[in-house]
């Protein structure tokens, strides 16, 4: 659920030249050796040591190592090393060439500041986010994602009218089925949601062809269940999920099981054999789009989302969730419009 990681993807996709520079790593010979050591630590899942080496390699390269900077932002955000993440973003801004690249660099810096602001709950960081987005749009006005991020920053500054205007601009640039467009449309009418801990705006097609989008489920409680057939604790937790599905059948609750299985046929056979009749979607692994949105690194992993789309609880492993679901469902029922007489 890291906004900055999505920003990095945009940077790499939209600027091929910059992406090539990132791939090539540092120019300095000492920095190259340190960078290789950092990559090794990264591959060995020793992230904190990797971060220190990426920082060292970038310094050895006099702040020109875009590959190092990308990793400094990634791990800096993950481990709360905001000094490293901000330094890397500042260096990217300094290295940017041309209007488009400059806009992307400022947008990336804004993403870091937004993430830091959400973690620290500091208004000054949201103000700096807005400043960076203003610079991005000044360099390249046709930048929808920057409009969306600015709307979120302004909402967190409680400048609701300005936030609404940004979301309205964003909506005009996107097609109707775009998940972020659906989310922005909700923020226009309810800007307070833009400062809540909202579930990411995913959209999937289940095994039976049903399209489920997070923002189509407003008014309903959502239970996301990340699992896999190869995961023994997941198989042990399955009877509990099945019991929950049966117990709350007919209630304003949607259970969506998101499988991290790679083998589609094995997954299909398993859900049929085990009568998993609630919505099922296969994401394909920890690098799947939905798993990445929710930063899932261990399973079974459940997320409970209220009728407004706000994340309420998250649990790794089997957990008692019925009490929370009852409360959220009761509130969802209160939000439902009353039926007309005679219906």
List the helices and strands and how they pair.
Elements: H1 3-14, H2 16-24, H3 29-43, H4 47-60, H5 66-79, H6 82-95, H7 98-120, H8 123-139, H9 144-156, H10 160-173, H11 179-189, E1 203-205, E2 211-213, E3 221-227, H12 232-247, E4 253-259, H13 264-273, E5 280-282, H14 289-293, E6 301-305, E7 311-316, H15 322-335
Parallel strand pairs: 3-4, 4-5
Antiparallel strand pairs: 1-2, 3-6, 6-7
Helix pairs in contact: 1-2, 1-7, 2-5, 3-4, 4-5, 5-6, 6-7, 7-8, 8-9, 9-10, 10-11
Specify Rg, calculated over alpha carbons.
22 Å
Number of strand segments: 7
- Portion of residues in beta strands equals 5-15%
Order of helices and strands: HHHHHHHHHHHEEEHEHEHEEH
Low-pLDDT residue intervals, each spanning 5 or more residues: 1-22, 339-343
Structural class: alpha/beta
Mean pLDDT: 90
How does the overall form come out from the CA principal axes?
globular
Largest sheet: 5 strands, mixed
């Amino acid at each position: 659920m890291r906004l900055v990681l999505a920003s990095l993807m945009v940077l790499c996709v939209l600027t091929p030249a910059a992406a090539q520079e990132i791939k090539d790593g540092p120019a300095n010979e000492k920095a190259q050796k340190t960078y290789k050591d950092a990559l090794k630590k990264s591959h060995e899942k020793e992230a904190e040591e990797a971060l220190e080496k990426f920082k060292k390699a970038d310094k050895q390269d006099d702040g020109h190592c875009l590959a190092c900077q990308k990793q400094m932002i990634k791990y800096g955000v993950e481990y709360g090393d905001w000094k490293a993440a901000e330094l890397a973003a500042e260096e990217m801004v300094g290295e940017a060439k041309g209007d488009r690249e400059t806009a992307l660099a400022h947008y990336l810096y804004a993403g870091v500041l937004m993430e830091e602001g959400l973690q620290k709950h500091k208004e000054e960081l949201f103000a700096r986010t807005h400043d960076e987005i203003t610079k991005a749009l000044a360099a390249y006005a046709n930048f929808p994602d920057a409009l969306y991020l600015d709307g979120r920053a302004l909402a967190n500054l409680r400048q609701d009218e300005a936030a609404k205007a940004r979301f309205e601009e964003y909506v005009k640039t996107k097609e109707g089925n775009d998940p972020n467009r659906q989310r922005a449309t909700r923020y226009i009418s309810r800007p307070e949601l833009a400062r809540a801990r909202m579930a990411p705006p995913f959209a999937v097609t289940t095994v039976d062809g049903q399209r489920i989008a997070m923002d189509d489920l407003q008014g309903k409680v959502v239970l996301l269940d990340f699992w896999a057939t190869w995961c023994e604790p997941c198989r042990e937790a399955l009877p509990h999920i099945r019991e929950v599905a049966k117990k709350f059948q007919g209630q304003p609750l949607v259970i969506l099981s998101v499988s991290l299985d790679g083998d589609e046929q094995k997954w299909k056979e398993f859900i049929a054999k085990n009568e998993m009749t609630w919505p099922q979607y296969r994401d394909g692994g920890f690098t799947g789009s939905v798993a990445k949105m929710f930063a899932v690194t261990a399973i079974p992993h459940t997320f409970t989302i209220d009728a407004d789309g706000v994340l309420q609880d998250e649990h790794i492993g089997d957990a008692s969730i019925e009490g929370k679901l009852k409360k959220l469902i009761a509130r969802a029922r209160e939000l439902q419009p009353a039926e007309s007489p005679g219906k």
